[in-house]
């Protein structure tokens, strides 16, 4: 009973991030297919999923193709009623649907002025009145969510829900452009950036480089503001502490030195995603911290 999920480039596709987090956080079986948004073949690669024209798109185990993240969310919640994708409390659940729908349809100024990018943090971005209005609205909605939730925790409704998958790109935008927000929103951004699932998404995205970089701005940049990764680098040779890739179990072909240990992987992507953020990957950390 495995789904298929078709996504765009991880460092930039905010809608794809929403879709992927719903599968990742709720343990739903999925095979992910990466479509190149910027390589010229996107429309051709998406054609078998017609009438879908944007990513993400999912194919259910029954063969149904579903586009639009809000439709995907409701379909998944309906098919997996015990996964806890929406808050259990009725009032909180209604509010979560409200926030999710507003995110899906709104915040156009923030989206337009601050395209999601997970490479670095821009310095000196000037916030327009329209973007500030969106940020003020986000703070208002977060305060309303806190008043409605019945479970304590760091997420919008205490425990992770579909609403958090939808607001992850908002957190990424606030972080990526160093936008000033009230303390509760800032704490939520920190929670999102520290989320292991979000860190895995970003680490995978960083395995691909771009020239030119999409949506680049003529502003100075600083390091990404999320948790600092362990010191790591790819190396050409050495004696690894493992003989099989921690992810696939296949024989080791590529090496990395991570926090002073040499670990082997079955391909460059497995190596590079771990170099980018080893602590995001439990299988790698099981080798480093047995």
TrEMBL record:
A family per Pfam: GST_N_2
This protein's record includes keyword Lipid metabolism: no
Residue ranges of every copy of the GST N-terminal domain listed in the record: 12-78
Alphabetic keyword roster: Transferase
Gene Ontology MF terms in the entry: transferase activity
UniProt name for this protein: Glutathione S-transferase
Classification lineage: Bacteria, Pseudomonadati, Pseudomonadota, Alphaproteobacteria, Rhodobacterales
């Amino acid at each position: 009973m495995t789904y298929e999920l078709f996504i765009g480039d991880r460092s930039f596709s905010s809608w794809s991030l929403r879709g992927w987090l719903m599968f990742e956080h709720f343990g739903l079986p999925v095979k992910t297919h990466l479509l190149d948004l910027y390589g010229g073949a996107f429309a051709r690669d998406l054609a078998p999923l017609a009438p879908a024209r944007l990513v993400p798109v999912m194919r259910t185990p029954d063969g149904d193709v579903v586009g639009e993240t809000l439709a995907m969310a409701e379909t998944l919640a309906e098919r997996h009623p015990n996964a806890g994708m929406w808050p259990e409390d009725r009032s909180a659940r209604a509010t979560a649907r409200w926030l999710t729908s507003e995110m899906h349809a709104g915040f156009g100024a923030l989206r337009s002025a601050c395209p999601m990018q997970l490479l670095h943090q821009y310095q000196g971005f000037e916030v327009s009145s329209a973007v500030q209005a969106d940020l003020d609205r986000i703070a208002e909605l977060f305060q309303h969510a806190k008043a409605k939730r019945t479970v304590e925790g760091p997420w919008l409704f205490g425990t992770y829900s579909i609403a958090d998958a939808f607001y992850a790109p908002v957190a990424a935008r606030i972080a990526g452009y160093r936008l000033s927000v009230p303390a509760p929103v800032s704490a939520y951004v920190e929670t999102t950036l520290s989320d292991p699932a979000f860190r895995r998404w970003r680490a995978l995205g960083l395995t691909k480089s771009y020239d030119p970089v999409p949506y680049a701005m003529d502003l100075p940049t600083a390091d990404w503001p999320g948790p600092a990764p362990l010191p790591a680098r790819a190396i050409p040779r050495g004696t690894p502490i493992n003989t099989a890739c921690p992810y696939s179990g296949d024989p080791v072909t590529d090496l990395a030195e991570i926090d002073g240990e040499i670990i082997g992987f079955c391909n460059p992507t497995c190596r590079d995603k771990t170099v980018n953020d080893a602590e995001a990957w439990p299988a790698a950390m099981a080798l480093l911290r047995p």
